[in-house]
Automatic annotation (TrEMBL):
It holds the Pfam family NAD_binding_10. It comes from Hymenobacter negativus. PANTHER family: FLAVIN REDUCTASE (NADPH). This is NAD(P)H-binding protein. InterPro entries: NAD(P)-bd_dom (IPR016040), NAD(P)-bd_dom_sf (IPR036291), Polyketide_Oxido-like (IPR051606). Residues 12-174 form the NAD(P)-binding domain.
């Protein structure tokens, strides 16, 4: 019996996790459409890969971009710009209505492990790390933006089958194993493992409307 094939639309495909996600989806026989600012950064060549040049800041024909798409994946991150404004939130607020118009239901958004769950506090140790290490690394804006995206999804987009992966990721190294979903447990994972986790999460109906962490179950 042949496996079904799908079309994935990915934002952030030239990023360190996004590249692995694209490679995996193509290897599994699916089609991928990627909106990228610098196509030369995407060295993957495949007849099932469609590269569209543009950015989330200025790309207008989202409905055209979403035509024929089954799954939408956001692995966006621009720490410098997110220090100044919630660029991902502004984009997601344009993306979700376009998904509704095109009948696209499932959406995966990759946030960070220090992104606060909706209307919840982080555990003390995570809070301390966020306001020391993360702050000094210039990444607080990313988490603020991610938290605004999550609030929008919970409050205004429950008709969409969204899922948020609060990923703790670092290092482009070989796979360390399979990641599992958890509300409380997490490990710092390499990019390829986060890509595999997110790819599998999209097919997990129990993950709809979740915003969980991930950890290695050895």
């Amino acid at each position: 019996m042949m496996k079904p094939t799908y079309t994935y639309l990915i934002f952030g495909g030239t990023g360190r996790t996004g590249k692995h996600f694209i490679e995996l989806a193509l290897r599994e026989g699916h089609r991928v459409r990627a909106l990228v600012r610098n196509p030369e950064k995407l060295e993957i060549k495949d007849t099932n890969l469609e590269v569209v040049v543009g950015t989330i800041l200025d790309y207008e024909p989202l409905d055209t971009l979403l035509t024929g798409v089954d799954f939408v994946v956001s692995m966006l991150g621009d720490a410098r710009r997110q220090q100044q404004e919630n660029v991902n939130t502004a984009f997601v607020k344009r993306l979700i209505p376009a998904m509704r118009r095109q009948g696209v239901k499932r959406f995966l958004y990759q946030a960070g492990g220090f992104t606060r769950p909706y209307k919840q506090a982080l555990p003390l140790m995570s809070w301390l790390l966020k306001h020391t290490l993360v702050r000094f690394s210039g990444l607080l804006g990313q988490h603020r933006d991610n938290e605004a995206v999550l609030a929008y999804l919970v409050e205004e987009a429950m008709d969409i089958e969204w899922m948020v992966h609060r990923a703790s990721l670092y290092g482009d190294k070989p796979s360390q194993g399979a990641l599992k979903r958890s509300e409380t447990k997490f490990n710092i994972a390499c990019f390829v493992d986060c890509a595999h986790y997110s790819y599998n999460l999209l097919s997990d109906a129990s993950a709809i409307h979740s915003y969980d962490l991930s950890y290695y179950q050895h």
